[in-house]
Amino acid sequence: MLHTKRAYQAYNTSDGYRVLVDRLWPRGITKDKAHIDCWLKEIAPSAQLRKWFAHDPGKWEEFKKRYREELKDSVALPELVKIIKEKKVVTLVYAAKDEVHNNAALLEEILSIKM
After folding, report:
1. pLDDT tens digits, residue range 88-108?
2. Mean pLDDT of 74-97
3. In degrees to the nearest 10, what's the CA dihedral of 64, 31, 15, 72?
């Protein structure tokens, strides 16, 4: 089972194995409070793509195309697939305020198709 959750939402044991999928650590969150089991920085969009997108919903469709292109060469994607196969429940943790237009939401969509 695969879920997404903002880093600022309360941790719950039902989250299962928590993977931070952002390149930057969430502002103002301590490691203890975050309950992150794995920080997979390499799965996050490149700094250039992240800055270009700037969480602008108007750029969402183009962001999805560009991010998918980046993921084609990613060594982290197979690593994440392996984690998902090994764990019963995995939560992709992200910091973005927008719960729809973010890399974790797209990863969940991509991985749901792959699995």
Report:
1. 899 999 999 999 999 999 999
2. 95
3. 30
Percent composition of the chain: helix, strand, coil (DSSP 3-state, to 5): 50, 15, 35
The single-letter code of the amino acid at 19 is V
Tens digits of residue pLDDT in 55-70:
999 999 999 999 999 9
| pTM assigned to the model | 0.94
How far apart are the C-alpha atoms of 60 and 66, rounded to whole Å?
10
Q: Which two tokens stand for residue 55?
A: 């969480």
- Contact, 94 vs 104, CB < 8 A? yes
Pair of tokens at residue 10: 């309360």
